[in-house]
Write a structure and sequence with these properties.
4 helices, 7 strands, 36% helix, 20% strand
Length: 215
């Protein structure tokens, strides 16, 4: 019982510390976002080719190439699920191989079907699919994974024509997660509280069994 209690105690403390680290990480992201967002919006070419802080600046929507679009599952700036409407724009000259960049031009809400326009974008690396990310269904224009080769072919481009960055709707880091920094503090206190409860139960059990005597 003592060995099991020590293992459980270590796990609970580790979970509490991990939640505090997550809280600090998200706070840093929000502070970084606020600092960089103070600058004026830049063009897509400046964001991609300028380097440094320009890659994090708000980006003015570029002129998309043609009228074709794909629907990529995602969330809006308030965490509501829906379809990101993606089109392609011409890649700047500093990208020697890529010929086009995916840009978000709208957002279609699941609940209402309302289509929101996008006023400002934010440059980001195309995300890697997770273990539970559904497969794409190009036939019904339902995309969940950033398969650049398949997306390029969908737009009538060569498989290696899309850049490994895309311009998505501008939003602060806190709005991209259902768990803001303040909630991580609550989770940490919960884990630490469980650790204290475990200690109390452990000693109460041994007192009841007569192994400990209070004097």
């Amino acid at each position: 019982m003592t060995a099991a209690a020590l293992i459980a105690l270590a796990v609970l403390i580790w979970l509490g510390v991990w939640q505090l680290e997550r809280r600090e990480w998200k706070q840093d992201l929000i502070a970084e976002y606020a600092a960089v967002s103070a600058g004026e919006p830049v063009t897509l070419a400046t964001a991609i080719c300028g380097g440094g802080e320009f890659r994090q600046r708000p980006v003015l929507p570029p002129e998309p190439r043609g009228g074709q679009s794909v629907r990529m599952y995602g969330f809006d700036s308030e965490g509501n699920p829906g379809w990101r409407i993606l089109q392609v724009a011409d890649a700047p000259g500093c990208l020697t191989q890529a010929r086009a960049v995916l840009v978000q031009t709208g957002f279609e809400h699941f609940a209402t079907g309302v289509m929101d326009s996008v006023e400002l974008l934010r440059l980001a690396a195309t995300p890697e699919p997770g273990a539970f990310t559904p497969e794409n269904i190009p036939g019904s224009n339902e995309w969940h994974r950033f398969d650049r080769a398949a997306l390029a072919v969908e737009f009538g481009l060569a498989p290696d024509a899309l850049a490994d960055v895309w311009a998505r709707q501008d939003a602060p880091p806190a709005s991209l997660s259902s768990t803001p920094p303040s909630r991580h503090l609550g989770y940490a206190l919960t884990w630490f509280g469980l650790a204290l409860t475990l200690i109390g139960v452990y000693f109460a059990y041994h007192v009841r069994e007569g192994r400990f005597r209070l004097k």
